[in-house]
């Protein structure tokens, strides 16, 4: 696997390839990135020029994995819950930016936008959301990076909310837009799962900005990046809206 | 043909398993680096995928290759009775005596179609590793959907360690396996052309 065993002519070719790759869009570079090109070429038995095709293939497999996961998903199977004594303290902050960039949303004039395949498009204030039936759960948040942490989230069952807005529950997707520029989307069966909560609190307190004030969708059946924070808009659709990380290459279903 | 030691299904699954395990290991190292639980990370130059998302794409593609190829390998071994003929019985005494013979250079390799006790143990071991890697991988991929497996493997975090140790076992097997083939090159040909 040593790159310095690569014959010099091959290495010159690889350097040329590397220069060409650098000129391409950053998105295309993502499979090689910092990987030694020699190592990749030896592994695949072909030069990295075939890489966009490889990327297309891998993304096709990822879409197939979405379908497999949708098939494996049991809408009645619950994620494990834990006693409050097992809550991870402090619960880690995680986002695609540093903690000092966390958006500070003003709760008083906040209104949640609702659109798409819904009967009632009125914009929800925090007071109205807090007036809906509330529940809470202690569950494990699993990050795509591999670490996990146990936290306690409270709020409205998302199914209850979707019923209140008269959402078309036969639609395929729910999309989310967030005040930090994040966006993601989920499948309807997960949206209707009993543990999927539109959370307004963390550990009994109003959801703090670092955990997603004013609102985070919490799904213990999905990886962290599928759980949007600082939600400003929710829309019901039959066209897959993708997502911030998903468009870069993370698996769309992202379920656990 | 009686001279065929390695049927086509065996050669095919052997090489597909090899490719799958190399891809899974190198992409797995990159995934591990995103959140290491031991006091080290893998050198990025020897990982596959470039970034976490790329490594995950490779990993979740190669897992199907390993799953399918290993399932065929195991089924064919079971159905044809090859598992019992070639790998069992394997006694600790035979393993020790063959190991001593191998280390002192006295082990004979007349027939590369018959395995010595150390080989039997190693090949059975790598089958067990595959089962462990797949089971712990399922827990990491879909921990909510496989509650029994999750409990058997001691929970999500423990499954990460089991998955890692299975990888370490594969790497150790791979290293010894390749050295052995280099020492006894005539054992390579049957795995390519069958004889």
Describe what you observe in this structure.
With 256 residues, chain A is of the alpha+beta class. Helix content of chain A is 26%, strand content 20%. In chain A, strand 2 and strand 3 form a beta hairpin. By secondary structure, chain B is mainly α. Chain B has a single domain (8-193), classed as Fumarate Reductase Cytochrome B subunit (Up-down Bundle). In chain B, 70% of the residues lie in helices and 0% in strands. Chain B contains 8 helices and no strands. The chains are: A alpha+beta (256), B mainly alpha (195). The A-B interface holds A 1, 3, 29-36, 39-40, 43, 55, 57-59, 61-62, 65, 69, 72-74, 77-80, 140, 142-148, 220-221, 245, 248-251, 255-256 and B 22-23, 26, 31-32, 34-35, 37, 44-54, 56-58, 60-61, 64, 140-145, 147, 156-157, 160.
How are the secondary structure elements laid out?
The complex is a heterodimer of chains A (256) and B (195).
Chain A lengths: L7 H16 L13 H8 L6 H22 L40 E4 L9 H5 L4 E8 L5 E10 H7 L8 E6 L4 E5 H4 L5 E6 L2 E2 L9 E3 L12 E7 L6 H5 L8
Parallel strand pairs in A: 1-9
Antiparallel strand pairs in A: 2-3, 3-6, 4-5, 4-9, 6-7, 6-8
Chain B lengths: L7 H26 L18 H28 L2 H6 L4 H12 L13 H25 L5 H6 L3 H28 L4 H6 L2
Task: Output the keywords.
heterodimer; A: 256 residues; alpha+beta; Sulfite Oxidase, Chain A, domain 2; 2 domains; five-stranded antiparallel beta sheet; four-stranded mixed beta sheet; 7 helices; 9 strands; disordered N terminus; B: 195 residues; mainly alpha; Fumarate Reductase Cytochrome B subunit; 8 helices; 70% helix
């Amino acid at each position: 696997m040593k790159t310095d065993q690569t014959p010099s002519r091959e290495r010159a070719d690889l350097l040329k390839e590397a220069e060409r790759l650098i000129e391409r869009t950053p998105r295309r570079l993502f499979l090689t990135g910092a990987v030694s090109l020699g190592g990749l070429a030896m592994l695949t038995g072909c030069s990295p020029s075939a890489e966009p095709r490889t990327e297309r293939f891998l993304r096709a497999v990822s879409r197939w994995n979405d379908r497999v996961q949708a098939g494996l998903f049991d809408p009645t199977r619950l994620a494990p819950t834990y006693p409050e004594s097992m809550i991870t303290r402090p619960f880690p902050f995680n986002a695609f930016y540093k903690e000092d960039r966390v958006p500070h949303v003003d709760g008083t004039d906040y209104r949640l936008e609702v659109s798409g395949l819904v009967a009632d498009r009125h914009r929800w204030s925090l007071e109205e959301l807090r007036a809906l039936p509330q529940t809470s759960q202690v569950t494990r948040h699993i990050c795509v990076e591999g670490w996990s942490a146990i936290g306690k989230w409270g709020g409205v069952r998302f199914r209850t909310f979707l019923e209140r807005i008269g959402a078309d529950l036969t639609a395929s997707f729910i999309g989310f837009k967030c005040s930090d520029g994040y966006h993601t989307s989920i499948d309807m069966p997960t949206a209707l799962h009993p543990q999927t909560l539109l959370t307004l609190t963390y550990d009994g307190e109003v959801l703090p900005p670092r955990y997603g004030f004013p609102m985070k969708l919490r799904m213990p059946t999905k990886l962290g990046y599928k759980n949007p924070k600082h939600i400003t808009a929710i829309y019901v659709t039959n066209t897959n809206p993708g997502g911030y990380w998903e468009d870069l290459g993370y698996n769309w279903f992202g379920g656990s | 043909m009686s001279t065929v030691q390695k049927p086509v299904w065996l050669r095919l699954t052997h090489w597909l398993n090899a490719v799958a395990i190399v891809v899974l290991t190198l992409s797995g190292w990159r995934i591990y680096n995103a959140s290491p639980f031991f006091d080290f990370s893998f050198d990025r130059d020897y990982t596959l995928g470039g970034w976490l998302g790329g490594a995950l794409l490779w990993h979740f593609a190669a897992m199907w290759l390993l799953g399918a190829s290993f399932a065929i390998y195991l089924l064919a071994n079971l159905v044809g009775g090859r598992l019992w003929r070639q790998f069992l019985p394997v006694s600790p005494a035979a393993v020790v005596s063959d190991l001593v013979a191998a280390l002192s250079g006295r082990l004979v390799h007349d027939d590369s179609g018959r395995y010595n006790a150390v080989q039997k143990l190693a090949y059975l071991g790598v089958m067990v590793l595959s089962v462990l890697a797949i089971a712990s991988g399922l827990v990491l991929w879909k921990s909510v959907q496989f509650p029994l497996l999750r409990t058997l493997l001691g929970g999500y975090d423990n499954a990460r360690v089991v998955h890692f140790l299975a990888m370490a076992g594969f790497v150790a097997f791979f290293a010894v396996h390749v050295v052995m083939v280099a020492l006894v090159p005539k054992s390579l040909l049957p795995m390519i052309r069958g004889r």
